[in-house]
């Protein structure tokens, strides 16, 4: 028997909002803040030392990676930090598709690291599953180059964790909740960069 299609017209949107926000709050409160602090400090220290932070993810996590690059660079400008080198490995569509076409998709991030990264740089990897082949290859390459690897993952005991110097395991496979909390961790990093003070919206 064929599966019945989902029925969004009959779904209680307000009830769904209540459930989602409750689930997000409960998951956030269960997070290991010591692990979050270690991962965030790894990124902050690299930025302040003038080392390069590379950020990688697929799909929605690629979008989050680009958001992280934007926020880190913007925060460093506002906070008066003189240098910030942050690179999103999925941000350049021409580079990404050329590497995927000429080599293989599993190497699209690793090859960029081989060309650009140095020992002491940091790779931040975002993944709900922690099992994406191109992210595993990137983490393996980063380890071989003498980089630090920071993982923000959803699933518990993922393959990615064995490559990480610090890892935040959110403990969920719900991609929406995990991606929301990855973005929250980004904002924790930016708040550390501003000395614990929030960045305020400024009008022109």
Describe the fold and architecture.
The chain has helices spanning 13-30, 33-48, 60-79, 93-102, 108-116, 133-145, 175-193; strands at residues 52-56, 85-88, 122-127, 148-153, 166-169. The protein is an alpha/beta fold and 204 residues long. The protein has one domain: Glucose-6-phosphate isomerase like protein, domain 1 (Rossmann fold, 3-Layer(aba) Sandwich). Helix 2 packs across helix 7 (175-193), helix 3 runs parallel beside helix 7 (175-193) and helix 5 (108-116) runs parallel beside helix 6 (133-145).
Give the total of domains: 1
CATH topology value: Rossmann fold
Beta-strand residue fraction: 5-15%
- State the total count of DSSP E strands: 5
**Helical/strand content category:** alpha/beta
Name the CATH architecture: 3-Layer(aba) Sandwich
Quick one: overall form?
A: globular
C-alpha Rg (nearest Å): 18 Å
Mean pLDDT: 93
First-last Cα distance: 59 Å
* SSE series: HHEHEHHEHEEH
């Amino acid at each position: 028997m064929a599966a019945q299609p989902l029925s969004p017209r009959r779904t209680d949107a307000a009830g769904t909002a209540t459930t989602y926000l409750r689930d997000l709050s409960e998951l956030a409160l269960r997070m290991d803040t010591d692990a979050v602090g270690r991962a965030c400090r790894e990124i902050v220290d690299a930025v302040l030392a003038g080392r390069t932070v590379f950020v990688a993810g697929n799909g929605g996590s690629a979008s989050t990676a680009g958001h992280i690059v934007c926020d880190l660079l913007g925060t460093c400008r506002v906070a008066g930090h003189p240098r910030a080198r942050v690179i999103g490995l999925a941000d350049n569509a021409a580079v990404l598709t050329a590497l995927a076409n000429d080599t293989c998709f599993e190497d699209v991030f690793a090859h960029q690291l081989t060309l650009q990264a140095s020992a002491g740089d940091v790779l931040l990897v975002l993944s709900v599953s922690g099992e994406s082949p191109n992210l595993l290859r990137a983490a393996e390459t980063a380890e071989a180059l003498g980089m630090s690897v920071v993982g923000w993952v959803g699933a518990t005991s993922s393959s990615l964790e064995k490559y990480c110097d610090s890892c935040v395991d959110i403990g969920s496979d719900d991609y929406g909740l995990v991606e929301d909390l990855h973005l929250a961790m980004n904002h924790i990093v930016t708040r550390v960069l501003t000395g614990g003070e929030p960045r305020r919206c400024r009008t022109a």
